Amino acid sequence: MQDAPGRSTLIPTVARPSTGTPRLPNNRRVSHSSTVDPPGVTEPVVRALDTLIVAAVASFALSVMAVLATVLAADGAFHAVAHLSLPGLMGIVIVARCVHRLRRPAASRDDAWTRAGAIDPSDTRLARVLSIAVPLAWLVGSVGILLRHGLELHGHTAGVGVLLPLSAALWILATFAWTDACRDRVAAGIDESDRNFRAYWRDVGRAQ
Predict the structure, then answer these.
(1) What are phi and psi of 26, to 5 degrees?
(2) Which of 59, 137, 159, 163 is 20 to 30 A from 48, alpha carbon to alpha carbon?
(3) pTM metric for this prediction
(4) How large is the angle between the packed helices 43-72 and 112-119, nearest 10 degrees?
(5) Is 182 within 8 Å of 127 (Cβ atoms)?
(6) Does residue 119 contact residue 46 with C-beta atoms inside 8 Å?
(7) Neighbours of 84 (CB within 10 A)
(8) Backbone dihedral region of 191: left (phi > 0), alpha (psi from -120 to 50 degrees) or beta?
């Protein structure tokens, strides 16, 4: 619309009447930014990874000491304790895992390690390596103990036939229990992180 040549008149925009529905603040640009790190969002995942690393290092060290003591120590009370410490550790892992599943039967997250890696790649890689190294240490330790006492069981077919399946079953169950526990620990941290994230942006929306 023009009043005169070379001059134009802007037509004012008429605001639509409000429907009574409040508009939420537009936080899409901010919430999808990779640099946003509200307080307490990533901390649960970092804490879960640190807990796994400490537990895995302690278990790995105990397994190595138990094997060395069993293979190198002379027969006696210390040798007996070292001999039973490794299967005892695997038994504790199995029992603890069963108790945890009974108390918290929540389903595991299949993407736990992937999402943790997006938050802290270095600690996630270390935790995953240790989660695999611990069962391998148990396996090497169990084989070392069996080799150490293999001569004592030579000629006792019944004893070997019972000991080998029991040792294999113990290691398999402990490996599954340990692997599931590591994944669920990381998943619990991610779930807490998600809750903190939603709570943070909910509070931001209310403040605005």
Answers:
(1) -85, 95
(2) 137
(3) 0.69
(4) 110
(5) yes
(6) yes
(7) 14
(8) alpha
Amino acid identity for residue 94 in this structure:
I
Q: What share of the chain is helix, strand, coil (3-state, %, to 5)?
A: 70, 0, 30
Cβ–Cβ under 8 Å, residues 36 and 30: yes
| Six-digit token string for 171 | 């290691």
- Of 166, 8, 27, the residue nearest 94 (C-alpha): 166
Beta bridge partners of 4: 7
Instruction: Give me the phi and psi of 4, to 5 degrees please.
Output: -155, 160
The pLDDT of residue 149 = 65
Which residues are CB-contacts of 184 (< 8 A; sequence separation ≥ 6)? 100, 108, 112
The runs of H, that is alpha helices, within 73-156 are 77-103, 112-119, 121-148
For residue range 147-196, list pLDDT tens digits in order. 766 655 555 554 556 777 888 899 999 999 999 889 888 988 888 888 88
